[in-house]
C-alpha cells in the first residue's frame, strides 16, 4: 500500500535521513520520536506537501509525486488543529471539503456528525478541541480514503476521546482495505492500537518494526550501579539514581536474573534514545 524508499530532506539546521519502510493494507503504523525528531516533516513528505531531496514514496505501487491528484483523493488527514475559517459553520466546512473529493459520501459525513454530537450550524470557532478533531476525522472517513494520516491527533485530548478515536480507526480497518499512520508522542495510544512502530530520533530511523518484535527486543534492566557498569558496553543508555540504576538493552540474552529485566515500553525507548542525545 505505502512504501518509502530512502527518503531524505534537509533544512538549514535539521536533516531527515534515509527513511525507508512499508505499510500493508489493514494495518496501523505509529510514528514516534522526541520533540523535533522529524515526525511532522515525515508526515508532510508522505502527504506530498513537502518534496523529498532524495528517495521515492510509492502508494499502491505508484510514485506519489507523479500521481498527486489520485493520491490526494486517497488520503484522509487529521492534524492537531482544524485550519478553517473560524466564522464559518460546520455545514460550510462540509460544502467546501465535499467539492475536493469525487467520492465524498454526504450521508456518511452526516452520520459521523450525529455520532460525534456536532451540530451543522455551530460556528467553527465555537467547537471544542475534541469536536475540532472529530470534524476532521469525519472528513477523513467520508471520502473513501485508503490511507488515513493523523499527525499528533490526540495531543491535549482526554483519555475517553483518545480511546474512542482509536476504536473508530479500528472499525474502519475491519474490511482490510485501509491503512493508518499516526504520529504521536502519546505512546500509550499506540501500545494499544498500532501494529507497526517507526521510531525517528534526530532525523534518523532507529527502527520500523512490528510491535511484538519490539517487545521481544527491547528490555529495561535494573540493578546496582556496579551491576550496570559491567553491562555498560551493551546498554543503549542508562540512568543512575542514588538508589538504583537502570538501562535500555536490545535483547536479554545476558545471563542476567530475569527479575531484573522487563519489557521496555515505547516511552522507555524514546526516553533512553533521546537521553543519549541530551534531549532529556
Ligand atoms: N520548513 C522548515 N524549514 C526549516 N526547518 C524546519 C522546517 N520544518 C521543520 N523544520 C525543523 O525540522 C526539525 C524537525 O521538526 P518536526 O516538526 O518534523 O519534528 P517533530 O518530531 O514533529 O516535533 P514535535 O514532536 O515537536 O512536533 C525541527 O528542528 C524543525 O525546526
From TrEMBL:
Is ATP-binding tagged as a keyword?
A: yes
Keyword Transport listed: yes
Q: Where is the ABC transporter domain?
A: 2-227
**Which GO-annotated molecular functions does the record name?**
ATP binding
Query: What Gene3D superfamilies has UniProt attached to this entry?
Result: P-loop containing nucleotide triphosphate hydrolases
Query: Known CDD domains for this protein?
Result: ABC_DR_subfamily_A
Q: Which UniProt keywords apply?
A: ATP-binding, Nucleotide-binding, Transport
| Transmembrane segment boundaries | none
Q: Which PANTHER family match?
A: ABC TRANSPORTER ATP-BINDING COMPONENT, ABC TRANSPORTER ATP-BINDING PROTEIN ALBC-RELATED
The protein depicted here goes by the name Vitamin B12 import ATP-binding protein BtuD
Q: Which organism is it from?
A: Terrisporobacter mayombei
Amino acid at each position: 500500500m505505502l512504501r518509502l524508499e530512502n527518503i531524505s530532506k534537509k533544512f538549514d539546521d535539521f536533516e531527515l535521513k534515509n527513511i525507508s519502510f512499508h505499510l500493508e493494507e489493514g494495518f496501523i503504523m505509529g510514528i514516534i520520536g522526541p520533540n523535533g525528531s522529524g515526525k511532522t516533516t515525515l508526515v508532510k513528505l508522505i502527504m506530498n506537501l513537502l518534496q523529498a531531496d532524495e528517495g521515492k514514496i510509492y502508494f499502491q505501487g505508484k510514485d506519489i509525486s507523479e500521481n498527486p491528484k489520485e493520491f490526494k483523493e486517497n488520503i484522509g488527514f487529521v492534524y492537531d488543529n482544524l485550519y478553517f475559517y473560524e466564522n464559518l459553520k460546520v455545514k460550510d466546512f462540509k460544502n467546501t471539503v465535499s467539492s475536493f473529493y469525487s467520492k465524498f459520501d454526504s450521508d456518511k459525513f452526516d452520520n459521523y456528525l450525529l455520532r460525534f454530537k456536532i451540530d451543522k450550524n455551530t460556528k467553527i470557532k465555537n467547537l471544542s478541541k475534541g469536536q475540532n478533531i472529530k470534524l476532521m476525522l469525519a472528513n477523513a472517513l467520508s471520502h473513501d480514503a485508503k490511507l488515513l494520516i493523523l499527525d499528533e491527533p490526540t495531543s491535549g485530548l482526554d483519555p475517553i476521546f483518545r480511546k474512542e478515536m482509536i476504536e473508530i480507526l479500528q472499525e474502519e480497518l475491519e474490511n482490510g482495505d485501509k491503512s493508518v499512520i499516526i504520529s504521536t508522542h502519546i505512546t500509550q495510544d499506540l501500545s494499544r492500537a498500532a501494529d507497526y512502530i517507526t521510531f525517528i530520533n534526530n532525523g534518523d530511523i532507529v527502527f520500523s518494526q512490528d510491535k511484538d518484535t519490539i517487545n521481544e527486543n527491547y528490555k529495561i534492566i535494573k540493578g546496582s550501579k556496579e551491576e550496570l557498569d559491567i553491562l555498560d558496553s551493551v546498554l543503549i543508555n542508562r540512568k543512575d539514581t542514588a538508589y538504583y540504576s537502570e538501562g535500555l538493552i536490545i535483547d536479554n540474552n545476558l545471563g542476567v536474573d530475569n527479575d531484573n529485566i522487563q519489557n521496555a515500553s515505547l516511552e522507555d525507548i524514546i526516553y533512553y534514545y533521546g537521553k543519549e542525545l541530551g534531549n532529556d
